[in-house]
Amino acid sequence: MIEEIVSLQMPVEERLVVRKNRLEPEHAGKNMKRISIVTGTHGDELNGQYVCYKLIEKIKAHPEHLCGIVDVYPSINPLGIDTGSRGIPMNDLDMNRVFPGTDSGAMAEHIAYKITQDIIGSDMCVDVHSSNIFIKEVPQVRLSPENYDKLLPYARLMNADIIWALSASVYLEASLANCLNMFGVPSIVVEMGAGSRITRTYARQTLDGIFRLMKELGIWSGSVEEVKEPIVANTGDVSAIHAGRSGLFILEDAEIGVNIQKGFKIGKIVSPLTGDVLEEIISPKDGFLFTLREHPVVYKGAIMARVCKTGDRAETAFASVKGGEAYV
Amino acid sequence: MYREKLYSLEGIYREEFKITGFRFGHGENSACIVGSLRGNEYQQTYICSQLIRELKKLEEHGQIAGNKSILVIPCLNQYATNIDRRFWPLDDSDINRKFPGHIAGDTTQQIAANIMEIIKGYSYGIHLTSFYMPGKFVPHVRMMETGFQNPSLANLFGLPFVVIRKPKPMDTTTLNYNWQMGGTSAFSLYTNCSDYIDDVSAKQAVASILRFLTRMGIIKYNNHSGYIAEVIDEDNLVPILSGAAGFYKRLFEPGRTVYRGDVIGEIIDTYSGEILDRVISPTEGMIFFAYTGPTVMEDAVVYKVIRRLHE
Lengths: 328, 311
Ligand SMILES: [Zn+2]
What we know:
By secondary structure, chain A is of the alpha/beta class. In chain A, 20% of the residues lie in helices and 29% in strands. Chain A is built from 6 helices and 17 strands.
């Protein structure tokens, strides 16, 4: 059933509407579990759109396996997605910095409030993101340090290649996942692919994770795929490589999602005017290449890649990134 | 006056990105004035240019105090200004949400970290800035409540209002907040516009900065003593929201007194021209902020009112 969560009138003809699709068994059981799948916070991130479509398609094909409530919120920033802009088009506000919002607040805060209130009561929330147009990511779960221990068992079910913790940053306090965790709804942030496109393999990989999670929660009784054993990153395991020069980035043989050795040539920054190679982008260590620059025009400082050390690891500590913070 | 290249970043298809500063006086780092961090803060850069003109004259007449130096940085986002964008053009990121920055971080984090490095250690910091919505303010000085803030110093600008804001999570990445955490008495100066030039308000801003510098003993200058500021807690500003969407007719200007029940705005149907809704003041007080857009959507902040304050 499609419901309107919030509706605001715009000056000419149309309304801004945030909708959700609630899928539930034909015969509602007692104490059914509820999961919320949220995406479209950032208008330039589209993999979540495909995830929502495939999720609903599969549930509709096998309604007999549904034993709980699945609330799908495909676009909590509908104008952003529709215009290809990351933020809210009218004021460039980042929708993931306004939660939990207020009932009496201005547009963005009001929308954030309605969405938060609607999700509260869920047993789990998965917030699907897709990096941006500059950087490509393998499917990964990013956890905040405060909820790390509580969420790690669920994160492991998400079929991600890697799980890592963001360093505690007040900047993230106003994100949807962080607010929901504060309100007692365990919430997981998934990142995958790059902005403005759909990477179907990644989206399907995440979809398998969502069904595995739903099975664990008792929401889905159908068969599910076996999920990957993710790399769980530790403190100091993740290294970010930044551009030391401004120029055009040319990828060498690097492929995202594979293990590389220290000294591996990921790519180079060149000058299209002089024909010179300005900088070689080299892996500083052996590890798993899970982030890779997508947009070729780079300014000094731009993030080019992230590599996570693999091998013997204790699994409870947090990863922290030297040089360059990742935000969702 | 000494013109200084404070920071540069290698360009690709454009000339080098540069941040330029103008230094007056010698000796201890007394005051630093920062202009536009966003490309469309034209008024803020303009105010700096007018301030540079005044300080140059004062310096020529020996009116900068001994062992005091002032740094003015008019524009910190030339790449955006020159192509009429607000944010860093390549990735649309807001430099004023990147502080304290990261010297090994992403491009705008590096720019923020370098700016922080240049402006730290000054006794007083003044940032000319703008609000994210189109609108007019009564001129005011804004400080973050960090525990280090000193509203009595903010009074010395002689502007009518000092606003104290409790930092929200998103504020902790602004220049003002991080400047203050670094030990500088930091003030944000809001004038009534940003993306067009208003000479009257620019003159008022320049006068208030000169007044502050005089009172801090950094320059010797005779000026009008200005206002005795009203200190307001931002939480006490009453937001008034639009109840409908359509053309927006603003009926009151910032600085005016309103009474409960006053009609202060009209929302007009974009097709029929009929009045759809009237914006009614829910309280008595003074208009602090007024939205200026031609159209408005439902639930937008169209005014902020200082409760129970009169002209
Ligand atoms: Zn995102």
